[in-house]
Design goal:
Layout lengths: L19 E7 L2 E8 L7 E3 H6 L13 E3 L5 E3 L2 E9 L2 E10 L7 E3 L1 H7 L2 E3 L4 E5 L5 E5 L6
Parallel strand pairs: 2-8, 3-7
Antiparallel strand pairs: 1-2, 1-6, 3-8, 4-5, 6-7, 9-10, 10-11
Length: about 150
């Protein structure tokens, strides 16, 4: 299946410099401010987002790792948690590294989720497209207000 983007996918009012920010259902909770980030080698969940879902630190598998941001400074994770992630008809078990640090976003969906979902993101068009098993593609539009 070919996935492509054209001008009909875009929004003339979109600031072409915004990150691609969407809302996704994770563990039966609608999570807003989810950044789709092709440059992230991990799916990252902020501790406060985890707590807003009714989960606690005891639910995290203690497996601390270091994550490095664009400044090269390491941030230690609290561990990992695997949660169901629902996107337009596709339910996928997704592993998140949990961090306790300030962020504009609740969750960062990185290349592990992008590749497993076969998502094709376009920051220019502010949308992601992906195939589903019925031979059609689904689309999730970015949220300009959240970005």
């Amino acid at each position: 299946m070919t996935i492509s983007f054209d001008e009909e996918d875009g929004d003339e009012e979109v600031d072409r410099h915004d990150g691609l920010v969407v809302s996704l259902t994770i563990s039966n909770c609608l999570m807003m401010r989810v950044l789709i980030e092709i440059g992230s080698l991990a799916n990252i969940m902020l501790k406060n987002a985890l707590e807003s879902m009714g989960l606690q630190e005891v639910d995290i598998i203690k497996k601390a790792n270091a994550l490095y941001g664009f400044r090269g400074e390491p941030t230690r994770t609290l561990g990992e948690i695997t949660l169901p992630t629902y996107a337009k008809g596709v339910n996928l078990q997704t592993r998140f590294s949990v961090v306790d640090c300030p962020s504009t976003y609740n969750i960062i969906m990185g290349t592990p989720w992008i590749h497993k979902m076969e998502v094709v993101p376009s920051t220019y068009h502010q949308t992601i497209k992906f195939p589903i098993k019925w031979g059609v593609h689904q689309e999730i539009k970015g949220d300009r207000k959240l970005a």
